[in-house]
Task: structure prediction
Amino acid sequence: MKTESTKTILVITVGMLVVFMTTQWRPALILSMLIGVVGILSKYLAIKIDFLWMKLTWVLSLIVPNVLLSIVFYLMLTPLAILFRVFSRKNELFLKNTSPSLFKEYNKTFDKESFKNPW
Result:
């Protein structure tokens, strides 16, 4: 996939400026000015910065979703499942075999219409 290196340089520069404006972290300002000037003066270095930026985004795309899904699973879904299991009195999935048979009896009369839309 081809990208435009000048747009990438602009995005990195503006991003570093936003980081500086919100945190007053001086290296972000210096890095913003350095990347901006290098991007303007050298097309070759702008392409190299764009290449490195795209590789960084590719590596992050492999890591971040797994980390976020793990956090959601272990911090939200696991406690909910434990609470449900502790406070639930019903055996809705029939995981505990408490009856002599696993078949259920339904006293329902079936007509022609009940087979047209089974769901």
Remarks:
- The radius of gyration is 29 Å.
- The mean pLDDT is 88.
